[in-house]
Amino acid sequence: MNKLKSIIKRCFPRLTTRLINRRTHRGKIKNYYNSDHHKTALLSYIKEPFKKSSISHTNYFEAQKIAETLHDLGFKVDIIDYRYRDSLRSPYDIIIGFGEVFEEFFSFKFNAKTKTVLYSTGLHQYDQNRHTLERALQKYVIDNVWLLESCRLSDFSWYRQLFMCDKIIVLGNEFAAETFKSKNYHSSISNIPAPFYQTVKYKDILNSKYVNSEKTFIWFGSSGALHKGLDVCIDYFKNAPEFRLIICGNVHKETKFWDFYQSDIENSENIEYWGFVDLYSEKFNQLLRSAFFTIFPSCSEGGSPSQLTVIGNGAMIGILTPQASIDLPHVAQLNDISSKALEQSINTLRSLTMAEIVSKARQNAEFVCHNNSQEIYSKRIHEAISKAVS
What we know:
- 42% of the residues are buried.
- By secondary structure, the chain is an alpha/beta fold.
- The protein is globular, with a radius of gyration of 22 Å.
- The longest helix is centred in the middle third of the chain and has 19 residues, at 125-143.
- It is built from 15 helices and 13 strands.
- The protein has 2 domains: 2-125 and 153-195 and 374-389, Rossmann fold, CATH 3.40.50; 202-371, Rossmann fold (3-Layer(aba) Sandwich), CATH 3.40.50.
- The chain has helices spanning 2-11, 13-25, 59-72, 100-108, 125-143, 159-164, 174-181, 202-206, 230-237, 255-267, 282-290, 305-314, 339-350, 354-371, 374-389, and strands at 28-29, 39-45, 75-81, 94-97, 115-120, 167-171, 188-192, 216-220, 244-248, 271-275, 293-296, 317-320, 331-333.
């Protein structure tokens, strides 16, 4: 039997993944707040934040805050995983989030009295998939290596919710929202800045930066190393020994990417691999003190909470693409995702004096702490949902 299971997994990986997801993510958390409210709401996002606490990703905070907002607005709140296609035996006054349940609703259980709100955690799905596939093709043409597993490709189409929801709330800046607005949807579309986790005071970090921090750059990201442009960073820094690059994230788990770049990382004295860094650890504090610059050549993001985290906690200047969808006072913008473009951006920063670097980094941190705080997110998501149900 075990041998048969192994053969099925090897020969039908996509089917196996779908079956596992269906079993793992099925089920519903009913009336999470045990309220007596008469109105009902269904949140389709992730269930983990309602079972445990974590700061591994801001989607934990986002999910909790959306549910809390619905409760405060007088709704009895049910919660499902976005991969679970609930049968919707009972109608809801509002369905919010994204995922399979929207397809079920618009296909078989449509009710004009139900408000539908799509919560998009980044650029429009078409734009994200196009950009990430372009990155895979670009890398193949340049280096003859296929690294699609290090992209962030969404295999779900979900056209019904993309076109038919009453309202769309986009995580990120106006650039992210425009990827929806440009497609002429009838829906009301608004964007809210992504939140971040503040674990230290940036002023304390700014006053204790290490020597040569003005020559140190960090790449701080999660899965999708190619999607998030780590390859471009390594390609540049391995030939720029005057600078230092610190890589943070579980990159080694992306085996094909790691196999291709491991020797470059390990044989370059100016490139350091720190792996996953806990935000409450002393290692995180050391990271923040080590650098004045963060690099994120991503092809598609929803407000880039990872970058907000290092800038809001550590006072840094970002080298970012427009697709990172962050608003900051001071950014060295990447015109395209290439080592040449990265070199041009770094050259513009080399002309800054130390006093200018400190000043710009401080202004960025102040902006993030004000514009992307959890309090601001809470206020904005409350306003958006209130408007949607009014």
